[in-house]
From TrEMBL:
InterPro entries: NUDIX_hydrolase-like_dom_sf, NUDIX_hydrolase_dom. The keyword Hydrolase applies. This is NUDIX hydrolase. It comes from the Bacteria. It comes from Microbacterium algihabitans. Keywords: Hydrolase. Its cofactor is Mg(2+). Pfam families: NUDIX. Residues 38-166 form the Nudix hydrolase domain.
Length: 178
């Protein structure tokens, strides 16, 4: 049985998210469903240098505390590739000469409409981004061998779902998983 929306109302909205409450009929009958819609898609960047190291950023998230993640952010309505290039530079001070789209993901698809685009960045060049890193809330930029990044996922050090998904897409593209 398909879901049917009988009514919908906005309960909160800001420049980043829109939250609505839907009256629905689904496989188990009638009910209320809360949905968070991101105002713009997000982008995630797996930046891989010539030594096979992944760029990770450390920051403090209000909702979950300390986090180790790939550079990421909102597209603010831009083309996803343009946003990915901007986020990589702002968060890490790095630019890339090669960009490969790794695919699309959906965050928290049980409660959210939150599309995400993932890119692999190579041909890296370091610029200065001390000021923008501070503005972005980045505490540190770390370069970790790809295999070690996967080990950090396995031991729970990297717990951000989007980072885990982005690393998996990169690993598949790079032939690291069979």
């Amino acid at each position: 049985m398909a879901w049917t929306t009988r009514a919908s109302r906005t309960v909160y909205e800001n420049r980043w998210i829109h939250v609505r409450e839907d009256e629905v009929t689904g496989p188990h009958g009638d009910g209320i469903y809360g949905v968070v819609r991101m105002q713009h898609p997000a982008v995630f960047v797996v930046a891989l240098d010539e030594e096979d190291r992944v760029c990770l950023v450390e920051l403090e998230r209000y909702t979950t505390g300390r986090s180790l993640e790939v550079p990421a952010g909102g597209s603010d309505g831009e083309d996803p590739l343009v946003a990915a290039k901007r986020e990589l530079l702002e968060e890490t001070g790095v630019t890339a000469s090669e960009w490969i789209s790794l695919g699309r993901m959906n965050a928290l698809n049980g409660i959210a409409d939150a599309p995400e685009h993932v890119f692999l960045a190579r041909g890296l060049k370091t610029m200065d981004a001390t000021q923008s890193q501070s503005e972005e809330g980045i505490d540190a930029v770390r370069w970790v061998p790809f295999a070690e990044a996967l080990a950090l996922v396995a031991d729970g050090t990297i717990a951000d779902g989007e980072t885990i998904g982005a690393l998996a897409l990169a690993g598949i593209r790079l032939g690291r998983f069979r």
